[in-house]
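Morning run. Coffee first, then this:
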Amino acid sequence: MSSTEPTTSSASTSPLAVPPTTSVVNNSPSAVLGKDDFLKLLVAQLQAQDPTNPTDSSQWMAQLAQFSSLEQETNISQTLDGLATTSSVTQGVDLLGRSISFTRADGSAGSGVAQSMTVAGNSVVLSVGGENVDLAQITAVGTQPSATSPSTSPTSTP
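And here it is:
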């Protein structure tokens, strides 16, 4: 081997030769990239591009379409979350004063009249005989007889 021949090193710059790295996943809400982050990255890319060799306009249009799609998906998700909460609250209100049967967390059955309702975030909880009952625990709904029976004689106006 002559001294003018290139020498090969055991260390390669091939991507396959790079040892894998350990990554850490951060699932906190602040670690999730949103539409504002996407827009900031897009603006930074615009500012950093080479004026003598600009990015193809079709690539920009594709990125703007992705941004628009992300924004619409976010808006739809928020709307659906609001509708789900509204639906749960409506169901809870409809159950007030009615006799319900439910299954407790330990698997035992319970029943009683829904006396009040509490909304905490997306969760609707009914108070039944001093117990807190989530809507998902309800197994049957009945009517609560009124305290005073209606009059059996028909009323008429002259």
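Residues 8-12, 148-153 have pLDDT under 50 and may be disordered. Good start to the day.
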